Amino acid sequence: MKRFNWLLIGLVVLCLAMVPLAGCVAKSEYEALQADYDALNADNDALQADYDELYTNYAAVEAELADIQQVYPPRDFATRQALVEWRNTAGIFDTPNPLDDCRSLQQIALQDGYIVSISVGLEELTYGCRAIAGDSIYQILPWELSVAWIDYVY
Fold first, then answer.
1. Contact between residue 65 and residue 123 where contact means Cβ atoms under 8 Å apart
2. Whether the Cβ atoms of residue 140 and residue 115 lie closer than 8 Å to each other
């Protein structure tokens, strides 16, 4: 029985000595795992940098797209009031060539995202601009700030 007790105690001591060693790995295996871990961290950092760059580019493209969508495609004015407000900010053009004045006003309208057409009176060779606002057509003269109603859009 004494012998059995000593054998049992020896077995318990052996088991207790093995428990801390159970989770151990060889040093070379540890170094290989550490190298893999470091490589994965480096890959993760590179991917994060790529993501940050792409997200920054995406935000810039989104902002540019929003600017483009405000202007293009060109559209008619929503109301007469919107036309009058735009006309007041566009300014007056009064050069010796009225056709150039109309083209200048038309170009500013296009840059602001609006459609303004040039009208030519052939009988007296007169120039002016026309724009649609709401359900009406309006005459705009580049050398005046007035906006005159012409007709309804049918």
1. no
2. no
